[in-house]
């Protein structure tokens, strides 16, 4: 039988950064884990319209720092920061501790696998032809600068009686190359004619020999965040 490995988990602490960065004692670990789950669930459900592909969480003492990557920072921040203040207050209610928000702008949403998966799922939910959708989205991702893309969908595509699997592939997808900058996401959409699953792989290049990987710094140095605004 095949042994399938999550492309992001395969690269964690090697060429990928941990999505939650904190240390806790045994008695606090489960509490922090549940809080992280609730934070991500709240953001996914209440702020889906803000095009948020990734949420990272850091803890230092009683302070929780939430990095929200979004392709629509203006919508998320609101006029004079009103929306983001309300957002932070709700997260403080969930955690019971002070929360600091960091908004990270995503400049190329076509290269974010989660946003691509959501786009494909929304079009399939409208019963658009899945072959046309996969071809169009795949070409759009490649034109945005990707070196490879693979999109796989499964379910009652086009409202068919029997479930089927559709796939499109462009360029290279080196899943087993650890130095490859491979972005992966899966998304499930529930429609009136059943559940449809979407998986997206996007290949963005490779880390060079000896090159520092994103978020993994030598011991003794402090991490810095690029393109962060409030």
In short:
This protein is α+β, with helices and mostly antiparallel strands and 230 residues long.
Give an overview in words.
With 230 residues, the chain is an alpha+beta fold. It folds into 2 domains: 89 residues, 2-Layer Sandwich (GMP Synthetase, Chain A, domain 3), CATH 3.30.300.20; 98 residues, Ribosomal protein S3, C-terminal domain (Ribosomal protein S3 C-terminal domain, 2-Layer Sandwich), CATH 3.30.1140.32. The chain has 6 helices and 9 strands, in the order H-E-H-E-E-H-H-E-H-H-E-E-E-E-E. Strands 1-2-3-4-9 form a 5-stranded mixed sheet. Strands 6-5-8-7 form a 4-stranded antiparallel sheet, with helices on one face. Helix 5 runs antiparallel to helix 6.
Q: What is the name of the CATH superfamily of the largest domain? A: Ribosomal protein S3, C-terminal domain
Give unreliable regions as ranges. Answer: 217-230
Specify the structural class: alpha+beta
CATH class of the largest domain: Alpha Beta
The CATH architecture designation of the largest domain is 2-Layer Sandwich
Tell me the number of helical segments per DSSP (H or I, 4 or more residues long): 6
Sequence of strands across the biggest β-sheet: 1-2-3-4-9
**Largest sheet report:** 5 strands, mixed
**Annotated CATH topology of the largest domain:** Ribosomal protein S3 C-terminal domain
Would you report the number of β strands?
Answer: 9
Give the overall shape. Answer: globular
């Amino acid at each position: 039988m095949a042994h399938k490995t999550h492309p992001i988990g395969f690269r964690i602490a090697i060429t990928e950064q941990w999505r939650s960065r904190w240390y806790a004692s045994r008695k606090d670990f489960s509490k922090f884990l549940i809080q992280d789950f609730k934070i991500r669930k709240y953001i996914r459900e209440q702020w889906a319209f803000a095009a948020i592909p990734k949420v990272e969480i850091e803890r230092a003492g009683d302070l929780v720092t939430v990095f929200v990557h979004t392709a629509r920072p203006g919508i998320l921040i609101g006029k004079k920061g009103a929306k983001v203040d309300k957002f932070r207050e709700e997260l403080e209610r969930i955690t019971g501790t002070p929360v600091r928000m960091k908004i990270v702008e995503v400049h190329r949403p076509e290269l974010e696998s989660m946003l691509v998966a959501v786009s494909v799922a929304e079009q399939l939910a409208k019963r658009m032809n899945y072959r046309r959708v996969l071809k169009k989205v795949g070409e759009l991702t490649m034109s945005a600068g990707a070196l490879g893309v693979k999109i796989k969908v499964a379910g009652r595509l086009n409202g068919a009686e029997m479930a089927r699997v559709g796939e499109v592939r462009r360029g290279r997808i080196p899943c087993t190359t650890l130095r490859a900058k491979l972005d992966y996401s899966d998304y499930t959409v529930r429609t009136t004619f059943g559940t449809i699953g979407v998986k997206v792989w996007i290949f963005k290049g490779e880390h060079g020999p000896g090159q520092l990987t994103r978020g993994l710094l030598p011991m003794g140095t402090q991490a810095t965040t690029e393109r962060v605004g409030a």
